[in-house]
Write a structure and sequence with these properties.
It contains two helices and 16 strands. By secondary structure, it is mostly beta strands. The protein has a single domain, classed as Jelly Rolls (Sandwich). Strands 3, 4, 5, 7, 12, 13, 14 and 16 form an eight-stranded antiparallel sheet that branches. A four-stranded antiparallel sheet has the order 6-15-8-9, with no helix packed on it. A two-stranded antiparallel ribbon has the order 1-2. β10 and β11 form a beta hairpin. It is globular.
Length: about 290
């Protein structure tokens, strides 16, 4: 799992292969070895800063690579979506908002393009900044589900559901949680600083979900079990308050980017070793 808080490059980012293009090492023997990407290989990526979106965000758009088009289905009761660059923590963001307290929901999601969805050994990563204003029974969640569209409000069926619903008695401490337990990070903390979320499928039934504050304030991991497959990502914002617009970070939910990464294949690791061997050979020849 990468330790970065933001992707290596923002803006337009294309799907990269296991090998860095053009990074060839000419060995003395005449054999050319390719230097692979040192880290995880990228399966899918999209960013709100992607030039594909320009200054807008609408249903049916499909920027980046490896994900399906955005759906805004099931948004209702004064919920909406806009682009925003108001957050100092996460920069340009896909922004969800609600304009009515008690009934509004902003509902957005998109499919995972790879056949079979998120695979064992892969990590889905996203950076978000949730509202800092809190209202009774309001909240937000991210559903990792097997489906073709967003879940409507009240339908929480998912392989894994990461959530924070600040309902006082039902969630003392206002902590993010899944069905397998609570994190040590609260909604106010992740709202003030922004948070990186990494979901890794460790096996066909086990996962780990790690949340890391972008200001260096700490991280928390929940380990649990799930029943797959996971082929759709669904973000939802419930019952906020009358958002004043895309720059209202106190009441909006911002999403900076989303990506899927995987451990390099054995052949890539072997090529990496070959490349290092060539470098050592050249050094010894000198």
């Amino acid at each position: 799992m990468r330790s970065h808080f933001l992707p290596a490059s923002t803006g337009t980012k294309t799907k990269r292969s296991h090998l860095i293009s053009g990074a060839a090492i000419a060995c003395a023997t005449g054999v050319t070895a390719l230097m692979p990407n040192t880290g995880l290989s990228q399966v899918a990526y999209d960013s709100a800063a992607n030039s594909t979106y320009g200054s807008g965000w609408s249903a049916g758009q499909n920027g980046g690579s490896g994900f399906g088009a955005w759906s805004f289905d099931s948004t209702s009761g004064g919920g909406g979506q806009e682009m925003s660059s108001s957050s100092a923590q996460i920069g340009t963001a896909w922004t969800m908002y609600t304009t009515t307290t008690g009934s509004g929901i902003s509902d957005v999601g998109r499919s995972i393009g790879e056949a079979g969805g998120l695979q064992v050994g892969q990590t889905f990563q996203t950076v978000v900044q949730n509202p800092t204003s809190y209202h009774y029974f309001g909240g937000f969640d991210i559903l990792f589900l097997n489906g073709t569209d967003n879940n409507v409000g009240g339908n929480n069926a998912a392989a894994i559901r990461a959530q924070d619903f600040h309902s006082g008695y039902y969630n003392p401490g206002d902590l993010w949680s899944t069905g397998d337990g609570k994190s040590t990070l609260s909604g106010p903390a992740t709202g003030a600083a922004g948070v990186q979320i990494d979901l890794t499928l460790n096996s066909a039934t086990a996962y780990s979900l790690t949340m890391t504050l972008l200001n260096g304030g700490g991280s928390s991991t929940i380990n649990g079990t799930y029943s797959g497959p996971i082929n759709y990502i669904n973000y939802r914002l419930y019952d906020g308050v009358g958002s004043s617009g895309p720059t209202d970070v106190a009441d909006n939910f911002g999403i900076s980017y989303m990506e899927i990464e995987a451990v390099p294949e054995p052949t890539s690791v072997a090529l990496f070793g070959l490349g290092l061997g060539g470098l050592l050979f050249l050094r010894r020849k000198k």
